[in-house]
């Protein structure tokens, strides 16, 4: 049995059997799904992607997104899941579903991905906090498997060593690939022997990391390791992403090389808006969602299109409001907008007139949007 569910876009779900379930810490667990032969083509994925799981919680059907910790070459779907509260949906998922049970799982999605470059010498740095390690683990396993010339640095923050998940897997990777992978653990609520590793991962900590860890480069005596960084991966809560993304940018990493994945709804812009726009008032907006047409008037263009439509209680799709998840992707049928930031759309999609409503400022008196892309 298969189901199509609308989550901003039409998403295809399939029934999968739970093959393995493991409690990792007091508030995290993992699920591994069995992929039958006839569904394997639908569950091919890239490192860093996620699936959505539909299940019953408190008598209601709910859908939640979970990143995969497995790498594509492993041929399986493994998820790392955090239980935020004993009354939450994921607590129900943990307690009510076991090995052998079937769940509706979406085909893999998400663009927290990297182009593989097995023939190049690359340096990739990742910052993760808590459950944010899940897609980073997928990336690192995949890179170590496919890119023999790439070196990796992971800076992983947790409240305490008791809450640190996947330490065994990470430490095993470091032991097997010690010449290409270095891992540094930070704790915000547990004293450490070395004060350097105490505290949150933020702009101050990044400055110390650059100057005390990523400084001397054995491969190039005239530059530092930080100078050689090709890509930065950041995964965690919104405020951490905002802080570290801006700090990396101000330390010389181009925005296009800073990739991030949010693990919660976040309403702030990741990067500050640096442009000013001429004021336009009484903007006519027409838009289509699930075949239904809507018309409204926005008072002005002081705020972004999605946020204004939501304030008027329209059923527009969204998740992060920060230009990361892509839930509000739509096509600009008529009018003009300014896309402030884009961590999601490809150049081809932008050329086709696709925009992210949460990152778009109206620049004309009338705009027409179509959210029905699939």
Automatic annotation (TrEMBL):
<dbReference type="Pfam" id="PF00175">
    <property type="entry name" value="NAD_binding_1"/>
</dbReference>
<keyword id="KW-0285">Flavoprotein</keyword>
<dbReference type="InterPro" id="IPR036010">
    <property type="entry name" value="2Fe-2S_ferredoxin-like_sf"/>
</dbReference>
<dbReference type="InterPro" id="IPR008333">
    <property type="entry name" value="Cbr1-like_FAD-bd_dom"/>
</dbReference>
<dbReference type="InterPro" id="IPR017938">
    <property type="entry name" value="Riboflavin_synthase-like_b-brl"/>
</dbReference>
<dbReference type="GO" id="GO:0051537">
    <property type="term" value="F:2 iron, 2 sulfur cluster binding"/>
</dbReference>
<protein>
    <recommendedName>
        <fullName>Oxidoreductase</fullName>
    </recommendedName>
</protein>
<dbReference type="InterPro" id="IPR017927">
    <property type="entry name" value="FAD-bd_FR_type"/>
</dbReference>
<keyword id="KW-0411">Iron-sulfur</keyword>
<feature type="domain" description="2Fe-2S ferredoxin-type">
    <location>
        <begin position="283"/>
        <end position="374"/>
    </location>
</feature>
<feature type="domain" description="FAD-binding FR-type">
    <location>
        <begin position="11"/>
        <end position="115"/>
    </location>
</feature>
<dbReference type="GO" id="GO:0046872">
    <property type="term" value="F:metal ion binding"/>
</dbReference>
<dbReference type="GO" id="GO:0050660">
    <property type="term" value="F:flavin adenine dinucleotide binding"/>
</dbReference>
<keyword id="KW-0560">Oxidoreductase</keyword>
<dbReference type="InterPro" id="IPR012675">
    <property type="entry name" value="Beta-grasp_dom_sf"/>
</dbReference>
<dbReference type="InterPro" id="IPR001041">
    <property type="entry name" value="2Fe-2S_ferredoxin-type"/>
</dbReference>
<keyword id="KW-0479">Metal-binding</keyword>
<dbReference type="InterPro" id="IPR001433">
    <property type="entry name" value="OxRdtase_FAD/NAD-bd"/>
</dbReference>
<dbReference type="Pfam" id="PF00970">
    <property type="entry name" value="FAD_binding_6"/>
</dbReference>
<dbReference type="InterPro" id="IPR006058">
    <property type="entry name" value="2Fe2S_fd_BS"/>
</dbReference>
<dbReference type="GO" id="GO:0016491">
    <property type="term" value="F:oxidoreductase activity"/>
</dbReference>
<dbReference type="InterPro" id="IPR039261">
    <property type="entry name" value="FNR_nucleotide-bd"/>
</dbReference>
<keyword id="KW-0001">2Fe-2S</keyword>
<keyword id="KW-0274">FAD</keyword>
<keyword id="KW-0408">Iron</keyword>
<dbReference type="InterPro" id="IPR050415">
    <property type="entry name" value="MRET"/>
</dbReference>
<dbReference type="Pfam" id="PF00111">
    <property type="entry name" value="Fer2"/>
</dbReference>
């Amino acid at each position: 049995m298969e189901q199509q569910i609308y989550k901003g876009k039409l998403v295809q779900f399939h029934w999968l059997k739970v093959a393995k379930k493991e409690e990792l810490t007091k508030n995290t667990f993992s699920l591994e799904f069995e992929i039958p032969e006839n569904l394997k083509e639908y569950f091919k994925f890239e490192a860093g992607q996620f699936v959505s799981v539909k299940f019953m919680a408190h008598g209601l059907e709910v859908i939640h997104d979970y990143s995969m910790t497995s790498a594509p070459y492993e041929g399986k779907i493994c998820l790392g899941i955090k239980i935020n509260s004993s009354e939450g949906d994921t607590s129900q998922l943990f307690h009510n579903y076991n090995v052998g049970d079937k769940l509706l799982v979406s085909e893999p999605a998400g663009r927290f991905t990297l182009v593989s470059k097995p023939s190049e010498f690359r340096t990739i740095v990742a910052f993760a906090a808590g459950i944010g390690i899940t897609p980073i683990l997928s990336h690192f396993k995949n890179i170590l498997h496919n890119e023999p010339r790439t070196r990796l640095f992971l800076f992983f923050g947790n409240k305490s060593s008791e809450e640190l998940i996947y330490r065994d897997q990470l430490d095993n990777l470091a032991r097997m690939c010690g010449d290409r992978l270095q891992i540094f653990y930070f704790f915000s609520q547990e004293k450490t022997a070395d004060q350097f590793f105490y505290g949150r991962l933020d702009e101050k900590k990044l400055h110390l990391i650059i100057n005390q860890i990523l400084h001397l480069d054995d491969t190039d005596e005239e530059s530092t390791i930080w100078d050689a960084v090709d890509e930065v991966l950041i995964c965690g809560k919104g405020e951490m992403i905002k802080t570290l993304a801006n700090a990396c940018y101000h330390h010389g990493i181009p925005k296009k090389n800073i990739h991030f994945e949010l693990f919660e709804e976040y309403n702030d812009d990741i990067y500050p808006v640096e442009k000013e726009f001429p004021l336009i008032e009484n903007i006519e907006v027409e838009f289509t969602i699930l075949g239904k047409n809507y018309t409204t008037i926005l008072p002005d263009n002081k705020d972004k299109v999605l946020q204004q439509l939501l304030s008027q209680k329209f059923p527009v799709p969204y998740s992060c409001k920060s230009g990361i998840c892509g839930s509000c992707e739509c096509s600009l049928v008529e009018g003009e907008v300014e896309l402030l930031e884009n961590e999601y759309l490809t150049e081809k999609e932008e050329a086709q007139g696709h925009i992210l409503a949460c990152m778009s400022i109206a620049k004309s008196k009338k705009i027409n949007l179509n959210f029905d892309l699939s």
